[in-house]
Design a protein that fits this description.
Oligomer: single chain
Largest sheet: 2 strands, antiparallel
Strand content: under 5%
Number of helices: 4
Distance between the termini: 43 Å
Structural class: mainly alpha
């Protein structure tokens, strides 16, 4: 008699397609949001483009927030594959801490960005399609949100660099195929 436990399912080693898509989409959105923020800051106050550039930056932030919330729900329903057995314990913990902090910053940045605008009495226009409401003007709240947004900005830079260093470590030094976990399956025809 054969039981279900006799045929154990092999453990998944790759992230599923939805997780991969959300990962790369989030990376592109963050990069775009950073570029629009840098360009917006570089433009003179009198530039006709400044408002448009910051509208796109804020819209990207709202999109990042929505994508991150969806990612967290998806991740809860579809846990990531376990770390490869070849990982050292410090690599597992470094990855978990970096990922947790990245998720936290992907929530803190858009929320603090919205609050810093809304607490100045400004609506946040989402790609000029819909306006997220302004709050009652509250300078202390706007100032606190600005401080959080700026601090989180530098945290994002550090975490992105740490994440990329991890990628380089696994691709160049370890050559252990870790990057392939977040890429579609490769075939011989590729």
């Amino acid at each position: 008699m054969t039981t279900a436990s006799t045929f154990a399912q092999p453990q998944r080693t790759r992230y599923d397609g939805v997780s991969q898509t959300l990962h790369w989409l989030t990376a592109l959105l963050v990069l775009a949001a950073l570029v629009f923020a840098w360009v917006g800051e570089a433009l003179p106050r009198t530039s006709d483009w400044k408002g448009y550039v910051f509208m796109v930056h804020k819209s990207l932030g709202v999109t990042i927030l929505a994508a991150t919330l969806f990612r967290l729900v998806w991740r809860g329903l579809n846990p990531p594959p376990p770390a490869p057995w070849s990982f050292e314990p410090w690599e597992v913990w470094a990855g978990k801490i970096t990922h947790a902090l990245l998720y936290l910053m992907l929530l803190v940045m858009p929320v603090s960005g919205y609050v810093l605008s809304a607490a100045k009495g400004r609506t946040v226009d989402y790609f000029n399609l819909v306006s997220l409401p302004a709050l009652a003007e509250n300078k202390p709240l706007a100032d606190a949100a600005t401080s959080v947004h700026l601090a989180a900005q530098f945290a994002v830079y550090v975490l992105i660099v740490a994440h990329l260093c991890g990628v380089v470590w696994h691709v160049v030094a370890r050559r252990d195929g870790t990057l392939g976990r977040m890429l579609p399956p490769q075939t011989d025809a590729d």
